[in-house]
């Protein structure tokens, strides 16, 4: 099964909203790498990604996430913004960010790097976001 960029993003969105660790791991190559913080070691491989995902989404509830228009960077590489509003450990937060993604020939993610900031409260995205 080969995934388009749009299919990958929509499946990732669904996995986040539903806190579905099994679904998110299907989006990654066997040795895929997930970096949520460049100052920490990444999760490498589907099993480590699944454990990271379960740990983090277990602290989240009522997740509402939107993705902007992906920006091609190079063949098989994109950048895409996200805007997430949710409860994190019971408190409302807004999490805007950007993901840099590289894909294999089947559309599975080889490497994901996230850059994000977490703000208190429930903030809507500004007009300039996502395009």
Describe what you observe in this structure.
The chain has 131 residues and is α+β, with helices and mostly antiparallel strands. It contains 3 helices and 8 strands; from the N terminus they run ααββαββββββ. The protein has helices spanning 5-17, 21-25, 46-57, and strands at residues 28-35, 43-44, 60-67, 71-74, 77-88, 91-103, 109-116, 119-120. Strands 1, 2, 3, 4, 5, 6, 7 and 8 form an 8-stranded mixed beta sheet that branches. The N and C termini lie far apart (29 Å). The mean pLDDT is 95.
Features:
131 residues; alpha+beta; 8-stranded mixed beta sheet; 3 helices
Number of helices: 3
The succession of helices and strands, N to C, reads: HHEEHEEEEEE
Helix content: 10-25%
Radius of gyration: 14 Å
* Main sheet characteristics: 8 strands, mixed
Could you tell me the mean pLDDT? 95
Cα separation of the termini: 29 Å
- β-sheet strand percentage: 35-45%
Q: Which outline best applies?
A: globular
Runs in which pLDDT lies below 50 for 5 or more consecutive residues are none
Structural class: alpha+beta
Number of strands: 8
């Amino acid at each position: 099964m080969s995934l388009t960029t749009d299919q990958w993003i929509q499946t990732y969105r669904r996995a986040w909203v539903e806190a579905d660790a099994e679904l998110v791991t299907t989006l990654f190559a066997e040795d895929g790498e997930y970096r949520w913080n460049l100052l920490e070691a990444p999760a490498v491989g589907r099993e480590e990604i699944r454990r990271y995902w379960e740990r983090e989404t277990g602290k989240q509830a009522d997740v509402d996430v939107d993705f902007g228009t992906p920006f091609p960077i190079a063949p098989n590489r994109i950048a895409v913004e996200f805007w997430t509003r949710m409860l994190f450990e019971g408190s409302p937060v807004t999490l805007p960010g950007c993901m840099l993604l590289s894909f294999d020939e089947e559309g599975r993610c080889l490497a994901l790097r996230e850059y994000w900031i977490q703000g208190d409260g429930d903030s809507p995205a500004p007009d300039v976001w996502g395009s």
